[in-house]
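Inputs:
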Amino acid sequence: VSDDPYHHDKKEITPAQWADQAALEIGLAVNKLCIHEPRCEQPKDNQKGEPIYAGGPKLKGRAIEKLIQNLPLRPWSEHRACILEDLRDPKRVHVDPLGNVHLCQGISIGNILQQPLSRLLKNYDPDSHPICGPLLKGGPAQLARHYEVAVQPGYVDACHMCSMVCKALMSRFPEILTPSQVYGVF
Ligand code: SF4
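Outputs:
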């Protein structure tokens, strides 16, 4: 359960704490996740003297708008690779309550309510996947170029840009860039 101010307003007892307590009472193991505020660092060997985003939460999905405030941006064209997922040879996927199988948050390879997971994984072809193909070729910058998505001058990191470009492409790939709530569209 996620228990931090990004998931719940400042409540005396958060929904996550209620869930944690309920789990304890029925003997269910629970892991608690807590996101810390992202920070900027000014490394000594940074020749250009620009601050860089140094850790903190992953800048993906609907949390982005809350997380990127005051973080430094890098030009969009520099985000030329996916930085966190192995899209060519994924070792894990995420399955959401609607059955979507995600390679990364909001990037689906199909739905287990329509096809078995084993078949989805067997049929996954990274280069021909409409989103992963361009990402593998040149990261979010290439994804934006490929589909002629209007970009902002800069983004904090590749995931920030990727999420924004995918959000702009949702209506073109509704079965892949799903569910919409991942992108903050309800
Ligand atoms: S958000 Fe995009 S760039 Fe970041 S890990 Fe996921 S697929 Fe890769």
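Remarks. The CA atoms of residues 4 and 157 lie 23 Å apart. The mean pLDDT is 88.
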